[in-house]
Structure formats: C-alpha cells, structure tokens
Amino acid sequence: MEHSSVGREHRHSVNRVSCIAVLPQELEDIGAAELDALGAKEVKPLRRAASFAADMACLYRLHLQARLPFRLLREMSHFPCRERDDLYDGIQQALDWERWLHPSMTFRVDVTGTAPGLNHSHFTALQVKNAVIDRQRDLWGKRSSIDLEEPDLSLHLHLHRGEATLSLDGSGGSLHRRGYRAAMGAAPLKENLAAGLIRLSGWDGTGPLVDPLCGSGTLLIEAAAMALQLAPGLDRFFALESWADFNLEQWDAERQRAQGRACRQRDLPLIQGFEADPSIADQARANVQAAGLENVVEIQTGSFHNFALPQGPGTLVCNPPYGERIGAGSDLESLYSDLGRYAKEQASGWALWVLSGNPQLTGALRMKATRRIPISNGGIDCRWLHYDVR
C-alpha cells in the first residue's frame, strides 16, 4: 500500500476534513444526530464514536456548540502499520512537522488500538514521541517538551487492522468539562452524559423539570443550558487555536454565531432540584451560579418528601445512588421505595426518568418501566428507565 501523505495537508485545508467524534457509549446515535444538526456531513455512528466530514467552519462550530462528544479528532494522515518500523517512518512523514510543531511548542500523544509489536498504548505513544522528536532534531537541532495538561498540539494515534490514523485533537481537554463544576458530589455524572440523558428524555423546555435527588445539579444545569441554547464551549481555550492553519476570522464568526443562538430572555418553566444533604445542596447552588443559571435553576435543601410538585404534566429526572459508589443496602431500598411512592402521590401525569445501575433497587419503585435505554455511566452498566406515572 502506497504511503498517502503527499498532498494530504493541501486536501485537508480545502473543503471538508475527515473527523471522529468520541462519544459516550450507547449515545452514539443521538451524538450523530447532534453532529448532523450542527452541519456535519456523512455522519456515521460507530462504537463509542461517530465519523463525519466537516469544513473548518463546521469543525469550529462543533467544538463550541456540541454537547455530547468527549473529543473531536481531525484526521491528518493514514498509513500502513504492520510493525514498529512502519510506525516510526509513517509518523515522520505524516505531517509537515516544520509547520505544525516548532520546538517552542509543547505536545502530547494519546493512543488507541493495537498493531503487531505495538500492544501497549504507553509504549506506542513513546514510539510516536521519539519519531516526532527525532524529526524536530533533524530540522532544528532541538525538540519540544511534553505537556500532558495543556499541550499546544495534541496528537491522537489510532491503530486498527494494519492501518494507522494520526489525528489532531482540537479539544485540549475533554469536552465534557464545561467549567462550571468545581464542586462535585461523591459520584458525579459527566456533563455530556447528563446532556444526552436529558435529550433522550424528550424534555423540550416547555414543562416543569424536577430532580428529586439532584446531587451536584448536573442534570438540571445541562437541561437549562440546552433549553436556552447556551453553547458549552464559549468560555474555554481549545487546542485548535494553536493549529498551523487556525483561521481567527472564521473562529470569531463561529463564536458570534454561538453567542447569537443563546436565548437568555426565554421564559423557562420551573427547573428545580431537591437535595437532602445541605453541603451538597450548597455545591449544587455554586455550580448553578458558575453556569450563570441562578435565575433559572432553583436548588432546595431538604428531602423530596417535603416538597410539592406543580400541577399539570412535567418531567422528573434523577440519578439516585445505586450502591456502586455511594449508599448501601436497605437504606437504598427504602429510598427507591419512597421515590416510587412520591411519584405516584405527587406526579400523576408526569414522566419519571431514573438512571439505574441496580435492577433490584429499581424494583423497589414498584413501577413498570415503559422504556429501558442501555447507558454506560463511568464503566457501570446502567439503564435510563422511563415510567409513565399514573
């Protein structure tokens, strides 16, 4: 197979680039739908990812506005990799390193997949670093430093079936970190997963939304931000801003576009959370304030038993403890039993969505789920359960 680096960069700089969105497991389909809605082309769901094509304006837009990806990878080079030497040679030719990585810049390497003789990601990453550094020494007689936290250039290598793909990670840190959540409970739900759960629930910002066990408030914050179309990436730095072909004018245009979508004046229904632990309730309020949503999301301190729900249909969402990280045994059974009783007494005509990692505990709700959507939450096999409350 012939090496495909010649003319690659020119092709990438015009029209569309090939990309991969890294997504939460089981949310590939709605993640792909989000990419499509934001202008990506040729979107195809994969395992924990989706492939797509985008021009640079669209790729910028996705970094600023997409809620579900962990990372967005821009594919720069494909080359055969059937042994270690193939990797070294392929990396040296994969990019015009003189243009993309001056020794004054820092970089990091992440690796997924395997190839013959390259079965450990740490070892493979080291081989990639060596190839890049040797090329830099040939060019300048000096080399870049490694920075794992805030690199100027973030490289991602994927090995699969004798093929290597070198990509640039435009994120500069996982996109699930929105920046509002300095304070977290004991078993935090990642922000992008929370956004995906709200999307799956079908809540569209027209009826009340209540989390009776709100913890650090992530489900409510993500729901409110989605309803107000607040772009999650507006207040962060992205690694793509250090790319050799970064277009500031285009980037500013996409930032203005994202800011223009926000409807901060929109009247939203009640969005409310209850948290029995006063210190965690304070954390939730701090997160709500950091997200700029203190006039939209209300956090009440106290057990849900003590609060009445508004009249008319609405949506209950919650991620109760399921004994993997917090909570234990009979206490949790009685919590779920109380939650089921509360829903029946207070929420007739409402939808109830519960993220469950323990079927025995959800049995204590004494309700029959109408939908069971598989979800992986931090490696725990869960179900996003929907109940029609009668």
Give keywords.
single chain, 390 residues, eight-stranded mixed β-sheet, 15 strands, 34% helix, elongated
Short note summarizing the structure:
This protein is α/β, with parallel strands linked by helices and 390 residues long. The protein has twelve helices and 15 strands. It has helices spanning 8-13, 28-37, 56-65, 84-94, 97-100, 121-140, 191-201, 218-227, 248-261, 278-290, 329-346, 359-363, and strands at residues 17-22, 41-46, 49-54, 71-80, 106-113, 145-146, 153-160, 163-169, 209-211, 271-275, 297-301, 315-318, 351-356, 371-377, 380-388.
Q: Can you put this structure into words, describing what you see?
A:
This protein is of the alpha/beta class. It has 12 helices and 15 strands. It has helices at residues 8-13, 28-37, 56-65, 84-94, 97-100, 121-140, 191-201, 218-227, 248-261, 278-290, 329-346, 359-363, and strands at 17-22, 41-46, 49-54, 71-80, 106-113, 145-146, 153-160, 163-169, 209-211, 271-275, 297-301, 315-318, 351-356, 371-377, 380-388. The strands form 2 sheets. Strands 2-3-1-4-8-7-5-6 form an 8-stranded mixed sheet. It has a 7-stranded mixed sheet with strand order 11-10-9-12-13-15-14. Strand 12 (315-318), helix 11 (329-346) and strand 13 form a beta-alpha-beta unit. Helix 3 (56-65) packs across helix 9 (248-261), helix 4 packs across helix 6 and helix 7 (191-201) crosses helix 8. The chain is elongated. The protein starts with 7 loop residues before the first helix and ends with a strand.
